[in-house]
Amino acid sequence: ENLIVYGHLYGLDRLDDRIRALADDLELGPFLARPHGSLSSGQITRVALAKALLNEPELLLLDEPTVSLDPDTGDWVRSYLESYRARTGATILLASHNMAEVERLCGRVMMMREGKIVDSGQPADLIRRYGRRTLEEVFLDIARRRQGRRVMRARVRPIPASPAMHAPAALFSWRRVGAMLLRHLYVLRRSWPRILELAYWPTVQLILWGFITTFFRAHSSWVAQAAGVLISAVLLWDVLFRSNLGVALSFLEEMWSRNLGHLFVSPLRPYELVASIVIMGFVRATISVAPAA
Fold first, then answer.
1. 248-261 pLDDT, tens per residue?
2. What three-state secondary structure class fits 82?
3. CB atoms within 10 A of CB 32
4. Cβ atoms within 10 A of the Cβ of 16, count?
5. Taken in order 233, 238, 244, 247, is the CA torsion positive or negative?
6. How far apart (Å, rounded) are the C-alpha atoms in residues 53 and 18?
7. Residue 217, Cβ neighbours under 10 Å: how many?
């Protein structure tokens, strides 16, 4: 479900084929249908990698991509990244404390200490410059300040622009809005307490106040009947309140799950997120009122 949502956000064609290919490459098949919360940390890492590779990006940003994996799987993922780079010509920007991984995957390395770049160069050049055997020993030298080198300003060469692999994302896409709606519907479908909460109190209120209004109309004067009309207006207000609550809850769920960063890495626009949240608010209100209707 996560891969489907992000595939729609990227606007991919033949999404099922792409997910199937990634599942085969990253060996995700056995747990594709399992809830995210039931996956191990290593499995979650592989799913995150699959999500990052869905649209075959030209620039791949990776933060400790093998930190939760066992040595065998970690080595396999590094081999996969090497083959992906060779096949697509992609640039990989890697942040890692695993110097063996850095030495294997990176053509240029920047060493940082206290938030500042202290040295940079090709792995072999750094090893030779510090008189060490491995990049791990170079890292320890820098981390423990053994070399006493001054912090220097990195010379960053401008990166030439390359033609986009895919067409520019449209300014507004109903497919991306639909992907966000699909994400929230997946969450509702997986959580029966959420559905029960949506339907229970509105149903109780509508039935209770409906009986009271019917009683007033049949057994009271026109003044009491006017009170019944007022109660009906209050019920209408409750429906509108539920719609507003649905908008707020949809946004708070994204904040609570710390998902906004993941979403805006995709081509999703802020106004598309707002549109999907508003529509989801009406969907929640409909679910709330439908049982009582």
1. 877 887 788 777 77
2. helix
3. 15
4. 11
5. negative
6. 10
7. 13
